[in-house]
Amino acid sequence: MKIRTTKPTGDPYYFPSTSYGQCTWYAYYRVQEIFGEGVYPCYRNDNKGQGFGDAKYWLRRKREDWVETNVCVEGDIIVWNGNCGHCAVVEKVNNDGTCLISQYNLDAKEGFSNATWKIGERLKGKVAQTGDFLGFLHYTKNGQDKDYKKLYEQAQAKLDKIRGILWTKQF
Q1: Three-class SS state of 116
Q2: Is the pLDDT reported for residue 167 higher than 60?
Q3: Which positions ≥6 away from 67 have C-beta within 8 Å?
Q4: Which tens digits make up the pLDDT trace of 6-26?
Q5: How does DSSP classify residue 51?
Q6: Hey, which bits of the chain come out as E strands?
Q7: What Rg value do the Cα atoms of the chain yield, rounded?
Q8: 76 touches 136 (CB < 8 A)
Q9: d(CA 106, CA 88)
Q10: Non-local CB neighbours of 133 within 8 Å, separated by 6+ positions
C-alpha cells in the first residue's frame, strides 16, 4: 500500500460531493484508492442515500465485508465519537504502537493532514470535536480475507509486546 502524505488532487477516486472535505468523504474514497473501486466501508446516510453520515455511527453502519477490531493494520479506518465523530485511515503501523494516519477536517476546515496517533488515545482537534476512540474498521475482501486472522494476530502480538514493555518499565 502506498502511504498518502499529500492532499489528493486530480485522483479518480476522490469525487466532489455534498460531503467534500469532511473526514467521512476522505475515508470513504481513500479505501477505494487502497482496495479498488466499489469498496465501501459503510452504508450511505439514510437520508435519500446522500452523504456519509456522522463518523461516530460508521461502526454500526458497516458493510458485511468490514469487521470491527481493536487492533489495526494498514488500510483500516479509525473511528472516534464526539459531536459528529471523526474517522481517519491507518497509513502505517509503527513499531512503537503508534499509527501514521491520514485524515481530513481535523485541524483545518476541509484540510488534509497526517498525524501520528497512539492506539486508544483520545482525539483532539481544532475543527473536529474531541472524542474517545471507538474502534477500527477492517476490510475483509467480501468476508474472505485469509490474511486477516494472521494480520490481526501479528498486530495483537505487537500490541502485547508494547504493553509488556510499558508494564515492566512501570515497576
Answers
A1: strand
A2: no
A3: 137, 138, 140, 148
A4: 877 766 556 655 567 788 888
A5: S
A6: 66-69, 77-80, 86-93, 98-104, 112-118, 133-139
A7: 16
A8: yes
A9: 9
A10: 78, 79, 80, 119, 120, 121, 122, 123
Report residue 68 as a C-alpha cell. 470491527
In angstroms, the CA 3 to CA 146 distance is 23
Amino acid identity, residue 43?
Answer: Y
pLDDT digits over 97-110, tens only? 889 999 988 876 76
The grid cell for 87 is: 474517522
The label of the residue with cell 465519537 reads 81
pLDDT of residue 102: 94
Condensed to tens digits (0 to 9), the pLDDT of residues 30-73 reads 988 888 877 778 766 544 445 577 888 888 887 878 888 888 88
Look-up: residue for cell 500500500?
A: 1
User: Residue 43: CB partners within 8 Å, gap ≥ 6?
Assistant: 61, 63
Tell me the CA distances in angstroms from 94 to 98, 116, 129, 153, one per residue in order. Answer: 5, 9, 26, 16
Query: Hey, what's the cell of 86?
Result: 471523526
